[in-house]
Amino acid sequence: MLLSRRSLLATTAAAAAIPARRSRAQTRPVVRIGVMNDMSGPYRDVNGPTSVACAKQAVQEFAAGAFDVEVVSADHQNKPDVAVSLAREWFDQRGVDIIIDAAATSCALALAGVVKEKNKILIPTSTASSDLTGSACTPNSIHWVYDTYMEARSTGGAMVKAGGDSWYFITPNYAFGVATQRDTTHFVEAAGGKVLGAQIYPFPETTDFSAFLVKAQGSGAKILGICGAGADLINIVKQAHEFGLTQKMNLAAMVAYTTDMRAIGIELAAGTRLSETYYWDLNDRARSFQKRIASKVTLWPNMAQAGDYSCTLHYLKTVADMGAAAAKADGAATVARMKAMPTDDDCFGPGKIREDGRKLTPAYLFEVKQPSESKGEWDLYKLIGTTPADEAFRPLSEGACPMVKA
Q: Which of 1, 16, 15, 18 is CA-nearest to residue 86?
């Protein structure tokens, strides 16, 4: 299909070269990294320009001597066909070696097929579905940052143990939403809780959630599980307060970010529980990264955007280890080497990549602070629980990834 004018403009405008180390030689290999996500829609703040800035930050910090690096970016508008067309144009005409971010699950799943066909690399950082390391895993893909299984275990399981044993879900009608509700239901029921109902809504055209909130309140459930993200999550939380629902139900944001909570406002978001794998004030290394990136972004990085920094840095370390020519020639071999090398960066600390492509990292359960507890605009969370990296994600034996031998 032909790309939309908006996508072409976004791609062209963002195709700025960032040499890892400048050289007069014109024969140096160039590694090209493509950041593809939602630059203008409901997930713009979750992804968008901050994701590109984080990838560029990794390139700037990476010390390479044998190759240069370029970062390009594009808006796939959360449309799989646009994502696939952009990817083919990047691979066939522009020499892009790796796509990161990916955003919407439908786009990531479509891109996984293209990178396998072209023997390139895909690293989703803002895509939620755990299917990416399950039935949809490929030797050319790695899933970074988080997934629906981790969110469900960290947030859903913990809330049931704390007394939130009855749930009602509001869920968008696409792959990520369905997977989020599925995985959370598993942990709620495993912990002895019950799901009293669910409402599926059309995405992206739904902005008024009042009828769904009335049903949720009438269910008698203690917990409202919000399976939408980005602008949908923000609208649901704000409207829940308008309808007085929060006086009877607690809110569980099943996939949420600091950018969402800031957009909602701490007065309304206070008390909401959610899980992330990165928070700018978690430790000294995270605070150091935030200081380095602060002048280059308007929105402080959330876990997905920090993931773009993290995966870019690990990819470049791997390219340096293999040699640029070998890495560019074989995406699957590069992914295999990335799995063999330990990961380590200021956003996520030390870690590893599992056989099925799952990047392992601890999961942190946060509660949004009360306004009286917050010391600034981005001082949003207090840590209330941690799930170790080797426990946070679905066991390797349960994922049904065809690459994993029984």
A: 1
